[in-house]
UniProtKB/TrEMBL annotation:
Record CDD domains: HTH_ARSR (cd00090)
Protein name, per record: Leucine-responsive regulatory protein
Keywords carried by this UniProt record: DNA-binding, Transcription, Transcription regulation
Claim: NADP is one of the keywords in the record: no
Record-linked InterPro entries: ArsR-like_HTH, AsnC-type_HTH_dom, Dimeric_a/b-barrel, Tscrpt_reg_AsnC-like, Tscrpt_reg_AsnC/Lrp_C, WH-like_DNA-bd_sf, WH_DNA-bd_sf
Amino acid sequence: MDLDRIDREILLAVQADGRITNASLADSVGLSETPCARRLRRLEADGFIEGYRATLSRRALDLGLMAFTQIRFGMHDRELTDRFEREVQGIPRIVACHNVAGTADYMLTVVARDLDDYGAFVRDVIRTLPGVTSVESILSLREVKRHGGLPLL
């Protein structure tokens, strides 16, 4: 499906503010409310909008440490990687998981209260996940950009 200028403006607006009212959205893109609501429903139905969510504060939740954790496997077995991926889904501290190319097999984004908390999590949880033979951590010193949204190319 081709997106026209108004569809793109709608997507940018709801990406910036998922709680924007239909009236404000319609006004910002230059439509009346009914056609705007119709377009928004179509963009949702066509899969351009996957959902809406709130952005929580790591600081307020006392999750001051963010780590990028590279995981390596000793052997590459489909059943093992499937088990690893299933288990990762159920661990809330792992906020993102990517199967990557390069020296690592997976890149995790992990949050923790502090370095001691993260160390215990690596020892007690990450190292016990199926297939994991090597763990390398990269600690975030400062978050420069967060949830910038997807570009509409």
